[in-house]
Design goal:
By secondary structure, the chain is mainly alpha-helical. The protein contains 31 helices and 10 strands. Strands 6-5-3-8 form a 4-stranded mixed beta sheet. The chain has a two-stranded antiparallel ribbon with strand order 1-10. Helix 7 runs antiparallel to helix 9. It is elongated, with a radius of gyration of 51 Å.
């Protein structure tokens, strides 16, 4: 059997091959994009995880109820953590940098300046260059007195050597700005880094650290002890060094802060564990600081999911399960054949269901504070998880409903913190509710389904309660009551939602079909007036298909309603159809066979237009379009062949076939068979059961041989059961009555002669059949029972 295509896909056959490929790719990507958007929406709804958490408490508050931990918690001890981090930070010493090469470099440059820079034969430019170098070396501008002193010193090698040795002796010390501050840091510990080697130094014994004043004094003493320079030169040189000497050991504040931060960051957070089910606080107790931390941690259980990693993980998990389930069902489940509208409906139902669940969680949180003696987990069982499955089963079919219930149950488990018991509760409840709303034709069906759902909910709640190790207690009573209430809430929500779904997504549910089956609907009333023969034919076809649909397990209500509307296209030209002429003139006698065929074919197009104008739904429209398939209009085809000279022109059979398509569903095929069988049954002169059965078999066999059933799923067994059902219904329609002993009018004549005349109205005899009486339009309406 060729792969079935939707009507929209069939209408695209005339487009180019490239256009068809692009359309196909776009359709596939649209499906994947819709699944991705659905997964993204569900992830956004599920994170942060909804749950019933304790209210806000402060130290000293009185607990209104017992509060237990719903799961194992690792609670950070912020006070102890800060204490440890502060200790680690305090243990880090001050960071000092020591420039061991700075003094040697400065002394070497001074020595070179004194030996080569003060020559007697220098030019003016050279002297100025030496002054610049001297100013750069000392970091200050030399006074004339200092300049003359250095020039005199440079003239004596002994003086130069004495000055050099004194400087080296002083600069060999570690010089700081404030030696007392350094000594205080030494007691707490310091870190000393040699800038020349970038290595950390360790002190061996008492460090040789002096301040600037000590360094200046020792420098002056060293020069005096050398006895090379006169006092005046010593005074001038000491004054110069006082202005130029700098510390070679200095405190590095930024590095100290960095080391302290590293030490603080290496201290991990201190956590203490709370076991699942551990009592956090009991009713009537005064809440302590430690208990406040635990209660705050319980409130932050959901905030863990705000982590982007968790969100991405949940998104991919949701996307994978949606895509894999959809692909498996599409390839392996025959009735899982979703178009874009169905996918959009399922996606909307998923999102709406989880939004409803979140709202129910918020309401339950409010109830928890109002009724603190009820455990928070008890409120889970009142959330209407089964609403989505009920809607899907009413609108689509059982196969899609199982797919929906499976995915919804898993996602509910994610929403409630990977709760396997709620996953089980949701799945069982969804399947139960979906089973009892099949072929929902009235509101009472929804309440019956809610009753069965409530019973199953209670049994499931009791099972879960015992499974987790609890015994008979008051909480079990609360949970069971919530399970009972759950079913009623689901029914109320579904009753209010179904009309909205029918309007938004243009679905035709069984409830909508019941409304359409009302014989006082505008279309059927017009059909009854304008085309009474077609109306009667449609009613009989409805009886035929309803009985057969029950035999082959298809929707009998859909079949009956489709039968009522399948020929509404004849309203446009009712007198061109023989059942509406009332034995009068046949207008086709004056038309060419080809024109007659076109008029007959047009009733399909006209029927589709009327159905769309009256918003009868896609299912009815498709059946109207398909109920003749591509069958041959044999009467006019044979008539055309007789009228045309075979040597001049050939009659094309294609011109006398309905445009199709062939029936795509069992319901459409059933309408086709019943339509042909009912029309043929009018030709039986003596409709005995055997003749009726033979006629039905012949009609169905001819349709089957013509290939009209190739694209639907009717099996040979189905056709055998349909044949027997049609024959049984027709046998009831064309049943025989026993003959009266003598005509009724003769009995009345006898009664008159005997003086037993009753004042009853004379019955119309058989001779009245050919009497033609003209009646007005009002009389016709009265005759049809519409006055």
């Amino acid at each position: 059997m060729s792969e079935r295509k939707t009507d929209r896909q069939r209408s695209q056959k005339s487009t180019s091959l490239l256009g068809g490929i692009i359309s196909s790719l776009d359709g596939r990507y649209q499906r994947q994009l819709l699944l991705f958007l659905l997964a993204l929406s569900l992830t956004f709804i599920i994170i942060p995880k909804g749950g019933l958490t304790p209210g806000y408490h402060n130290p000293g508050d009185i607990a209104a109820r017992d509060i237990k931990s719903p799961r194992e918690l690792l609670i950070p001890d912020e006070v102890l953590t800060d204490r440890k981090r502060q200790s680690a930070e305090d243990a880090v010493g001050a960071f000092y940098d020591y420039d061991s090469e700075a003094g040697v470099t400065q002394v070497n440059r001074l020595n070179q300046l004194l030996e080569t820079g003060f020559g007697a034969e220098q030019s003016v430019e050279a002297v100025e260059q030496v002054k610049v170098e001297a100013d750069s070396l000392f970091g200050v501008a030399l006074t004339p007195d200092e300049w003359r002193t250095l020039k005199k010193i440079s003239e004596s090698k002994e003086a130069v050597q004495a000055l050099r040795n004194s400087l080296l002796e002083i600069l060999s010390y570690q010089i700081v700005n404030d030696v007392k501050l350094f000594q205080a840091d030494m007691k707490r510990g310091i870190i000393l880094r040699d800038l020349a080697t970038d290595k950390i130094l360790t002190f061996e014994g008492e460090p040789s650290v002096i301040d600037l004043n000590t360094a200046r004094k020792r420098f002056a003493d060293a020069l005096a002890e050398s006895r090379v320079l006169p006092k005046q030169q010593i005074k001038t040189v000491v004054s110069l060094i006082d202005r130029t000497i700098r510390p070679n050991l200095f405190f590095n504040q930024s590095e100290t802060a960095h080391q302290k931060k590293m030490a603080r960051d290496t201290v991990t957070e201190v956590l203490y564990q709370v076991k699942r089910g551990e009592m956090i606080v009991r009713e009537g107790e005064r809440i302590t600081d430690n208990q406040v931390l635990k209660l705050q941690a319980m409130r932050k259980i959901g905030s863990d999911s705000k982590n982007i990693q968790t969100a991405v993980g949940l998104l991919f998990c949701t996307l994978i399960i949606l895509y894999v389930s959809d692909r498996f069902a599409s390839r392996n489940i025959r009735k899982y054949n979703l178009n874009d509208r169905d996918l959009l409906f399922l996606s909307t139902t998923f999102v709406g269901l989880f939004v409803l669940i979140k709202l129910a969680i918020f309401v339950s949180s409010a109830l928890e504070s109002a009724f603190p003696y009820i455990e928070s987990t008890s409120y889970y069982y009142v959330v209407p998880f089964a609403v989505g499955a009920m809607l899907v089963r009413i609108v689509l079919n059982s196969e899609v409903t199982v797919f929906f219930a499976f995915l919804a149950a898993i996602l509910v488990g994610f929403l409630f913190g990977n709760n396997l018991f709620l996953t089980f509760y949701t799945f069982v409840g969804s399947l139960t509710a979906a089973h009892w709303v099949r072929h929902c034709k009235e509101r009472a069906t929804l309440y019956r389904a809610s009753f069965h759902l409530s019973i199953v909910n209670v049994l499931t709640v009791i099972s879960i309660h015992f499974l987790v190790g609890h015994g008979f207690d008051l909480q079990l009573l609360y949970k069971s009551g919530f399970g009972l209430l759950n079913g009623f809430i689901c029914a109320v929500i579904v009753i209010g939602t179904i009309p909205l779904i029918e309007h938004l997504f243009k679905y035709t549910t069984d409830i909508k079909l019941l409304e359409m089956a009302n014989m006082h609907s505008p279309v059927l009333r017009e059909l009854m007036i304008q085309a009474p023969g077609t109306y009667h034919h449609s009613v009989v076809v409805g009886n035929l298909v309803e009985a057969a649909a029950e035999e082959i397990n298809v929707n009998p209500l859909l079949c009956r309603v489709a039968a009522y509307y399948h020929d509404i296209g004849k309203l446009r030209k009712p007198l061109y159809f023989i059942e509406n002429t009332g034995g009068g003139e046949n207008r086709h006698d004056k038309l060419a066979p080809s024109m007659s065929a076109l008029i007959l074919m047009a009733h399909l197009k006209d029927g589709v237009e009327i159905a769309r104008e009256n918003k009868l739904g896609d299912q009815i429209i498709n059946i109207i379009r398909q109920h003749h398939g591509t069958a041959l209009i044999k009467f006019f085809y044979d008539k055309a062949k007789k009228q045309v000279d075979e040597n001049v022109q050939q009659v094309s059979e294609r011109d006398y076939r309905y445009p199709g398509p062939k029936p795509q569903t069992r319901e459409a095929a059933l309408i086709m068979l019943a339509d042909a069988v009912e029309a043929a049954s009018r030709t039986l002169s003596d409709p005995t059961p055997a003749r009726t059965l033979g006629m039905v078999q012949k009609i169905i066999n001819n349709i089957f041989i013509d290939g009209q059933l190739d694209e639907c799923e009717l099996s040979l067994k189905d056709m055998h059961m349909i044949t027997k059902s049609f024959a049984r219904v027709l046998g009831g329609i064309f049943h025989h009555r026993v003959d009266y002993p003598e005509p009724v009018h003769k009995e009345r004549v006898t009664e008159k002669k005997n003086g037993n005349d009753s004042n009853r109205e004379r019955a119309t005899g058989p001779s009245d059949k050919n009497t033609k009486v003209k009646k007005s339009g009002a009389d016709d309406i009265k005759r049809l029972g519409m006055s």
